[in-house]
Specification:
Number of strands: 0
Order of helices and strands: HHHHHHHHHHH
Largest sheet: none
Radius of gyration: 26 Å
Strand content: under 5%
Number of helices: 11
Number of domains: 2
Oligomer: single chain
Keywords: DNA-binding, Membrane, Transmembrane, Transmembrane helix
Helix content: over 70%
Pfam families: HTH_3
Organism: Lacticaseibacillus chiayiensis
GO molecular function, one term: DNA binding
Protein name: Helix-turn-helix domain-containing protein
Length: 223
Amino acid sequence: MQFSDKLKMARQQQHYTQTQVAEQLHVSPKTISSWENARSFPDISTLVKISDFYDISLDRLLREDQTMMEHYETIDKHALRDKHIFQVTYFVNLVFILGFVIVHMLSNTPPILRQYGSWLMLAFFVNLIVLATHYPNYRLWIRSWPRRILLIILTIGIATIILLPFLNQPTNIPTDINSSAYSAQAAQGYLAGAKLGVAINIIAGTLSSIFIVFGSEEILDKN
């Protein structure tokens, strides 16, 4: 017997409606219908709740349903792949942050950074996006509004503390812009762009640092 049939039979034997089951499992009735018609499968944590709710062992629920077993095997493979990608991007991100700190401490910018700085920043942003989207608890954070708000407040708060001193520093305007026919407008545009660039870099650096702190537990996890 397939998982969907077992689920439907268990509900009917205990005289529950799909709405009642949905309320107990904190999902929508449409989701219950989808499970009972084999259009989708519950995640692992919800599967445990179903087992407890109907008082049916997980072994009994999953046995004989090869499609469902293959579904969970695929999820495991994807989770393992995502963890490996996260580990690689985590250490690349750590190297970037350490590099930025070292460069900031130097009195003169190394020539290689002046030549390839834009490409390095692009690589940093791409790596940060991959790191964020492969964070093991990424979907949990995305689905939860309190966690979203916490991340936004944390990022803005830390970035603002770091950003204010930089915005108050004078910015040197290149001679060719300062001496152009539209020097006033050009200078204002350059200053605005420079400060916006600083703000974006600091916000990205703040997010990067947050992932280093909160991601360290996942890196140290041997499982």
